[in-house]
Structure formats: structure tokens, C-alpha cells
Design brief:
Elements: E1 5-11, E2 16-21, E3 26-30, H1 31-36, E4 44-45, E5 50-51, E6 66-71, E7 74-78, E8 84-88, H2 89-94, H3 99-110, E9 125-127, H4 128-133, H5 135-148, E10 150-154, H6 162-170, E11 182-184, E12 200-203, E13 215-222, E14 230-234, H7 235-245, H8 247-253, E15 257-265, E16 269-277, E17 279-281, E18 287-290, H9 308-323, E19 328-331, E20 338-342, E21 346-350, E22 362-368, H10 370-385
Parallel strand pairs: 9-10
Antiparallel strand pairs: 1-2, 2-3, 4-5, 6-7, 7-8, 10-20, 11-22, 12-21, 13-20, 13-22, 14-19, 14-21, 15-16, 17-18
Function: Catalyzes the formation of L-carnitine from gamma-butyrobetaine.
Family: Belongs to the gamma-BBH/TMLD family.
Pfam family, one: GBBH-like_N
Length: 388
Amino acid sequence: MSPGIQKVEALDAGHFVRVEWEDGSESRYPCVWLRDNCQCPICFLPSAGARRLPFEDLDVNIVVKEVALADRKKISITWPDEHASEYEAEWLKKRCFSEEARAEMQADLFLPERQYWGSDLHLPKIPFEEIMCNDESAYKWLCTLKKVGIVLLTGAAASQGELIKLGQRIGFLRLTFYGPTWQVQDKADANNVAYTTGKLCFHTDYPVLHHPPGVQFLHCIKQTAAGGESEVVDGFHVCNKLKKQNPEAYQILSSTAVDYTDVGVDYCDFAVHCKQRIIDIDSRGQAVRINYNNATRDAVFDIPAEKVRPFYAALKEFNDLLNSAEHKFTYKLKPGDIVTFDNWRVLHGRQSYPSGSEVTRHLEGAYADWDVVLSRLRRLRKRVLNRD
């Protein structure tokens, strides 16, 4: 049921509007924000959901001339220049400035809830055809991917091209220097350590890019009989452990800019260089992205010599936690399996497997950005839950 308004009034010499709701709660709205977000056709373009009012035309010290309750579902404001604005009760309620309301809106928009895991992970599984054909299943997939960080899609065809379909289901894939999709198999003169039969240590993909891909897809087309098991670890869970166990190491890894490099030829020739912190944190000190790939960490290191060994010690402790038996989960992909995971959170690796005269293991890989994935999640939520 949409909220109803009991009373509305101006406060603080007209700089705020106070709304008293029928349930007894109240909200206070700064007038500069109300004027900035006028919903009339002159100030707002509904077809684009975009503001028309130029910022240079906004008076940051504006006060209301008159505020009235049009009905219990709407308030009207007249401004000093006689411009009139109306605001729906439901629109206002969603944008209340209380701490609780702001947290609720942010949770609704960005789904920050996380379910941490270690070696006890129960790998979520959903049939590939279900998420392709059913909106509820696709919504469940993307919600679980955001919350847990990893979901296995089963039953895809054991041939190239399935990831293109998956990309179209969410919107589009991320193009990189390795192409729209890329083939993980043993290659002569490999231009990436993944294109060998050797062990791959825990890593996130592409920290050499300023904006690494948020989501990764790996589709098993052919699997070797011996070896080749996949390994994953919840990087955010490990970060929490490190922060508690050794705050100084956590501080070093979240503040030291590390040089990464990737030079070669694939989709086109490339020479990429970037600086990243191993652990990116938010304003509260919580990890929001892991940028760690030992293979592409550069020999160039732009820090004072006396800080090098403490950095290595901190990284060693983090790496040991990643590889501890209690944190890593091991599984083996079957032909037709597609593992989808959060490349900012989940570090992945692979056990070695025997080389041979022909290709014995073949995965097709692709990336998507979290912006694209979350966009599709919100659109699916609106359809499935009939929500705005």
C-alpha cells in the first residue's frame, strides 16, 4: 500500500520541508534538493528519466514560498519565482533522508548482502536452459551470483557459442584484448599462463586494466581425465580474516599501488600497464575488489626500497590464507558446465594436468561488467516481482 501524508510544513525559515506520514513517522527534505528534483516537464524529461534543469539555474540557498498538501498522496510547492512543483508521496517516501531509509534504498539498488564461504561451499547450481528461458530462474541466478559470488550453470551444449547466448541474455559481453570470448587450452608459444597445462595459482583476471571485468564465465567444452580441477576462494572472506589477524598487513595491501603489465598479441596487439591496490576498500575499510594476479604483477615496483619487504610479507600472509585448506573449494567442471563468478571477489585457480599431442582440456571464457549484470538483474526483478 502506498504511503499517505498526514501533514506538511516548511521549517528552518523555509530551507526544509517536513512531511508527517499517516503511520506517525516523519521525513525532512532540504528545499534545494526538492527544487533540484522538480518533476514538472520543464525540469524533468520522463521518457529519459533525466533532469532538464541546468545546475547553473539552481539557487542553492532557495527556500519555499508556499507548501501545501494537495491530497494525502501528493504535496505541492510554490517557489519564490512562482515556479510550481508537485511530489508524489510514494516518490518522496522512497527518497527519505533518514539513515534507515537511505540504507534500504541502497540495498535495493546494489544488493550489498554477502554470504561468505570457505571449503564448506555448497556450490549453487541452476540448469542453463532455465536461466535462458525463464525470468524467475535468471533472476535467481543473478541474485545468487551477487550474494554468494559463484553459480554453476549446468547442461549447456559442449560446443563454442554458448557464452555468446549468455551475454545476450544479460545484455552484452565485455570485449578485451583476448577477444569477445577466448579459448583456454594448451597452446604453443602461449601468450597467457592459462594457455598451458601448468597449475594456475589463485588470481583475479585482468587487474592490469583500470576497470577489471566484474564477472567471468568459463564454459567447459572438453575436460581432461586426469587433473585440471578448478579451485576457488572467497576473497572477501579471506580479507576479513586478514584484517582481524594482521591489521598492518591489511593496511599495506589496501594502500600500496602495485604495477601490473600485459604485453602481447591476441585479438589485437597490446601493451597494457596499470597500478592497482591488491585490496580495494570502501570508506568503511571493507574490501570491495581484489586485484591480484601473480603472473602479471610487474617487476617494476614504484615504492621506496625499505617498504618492499614489508609488502612481500603482507602479500605472503594473504596468499597463505587464500591457499589454506579451510578457505579453498575444489571441483571439476564437466562438458556443458558454465561456472559464473564475481571476478572482483572470487579468486580462481586450476590444478595442472598432463600435456599431450592433442587438446585434452578446452574451456571457453568471457567477461561481463557488473554494470551490465546489475542492470539485467533490476529489469528482471521488475518483471518477476512487479516492482518499480
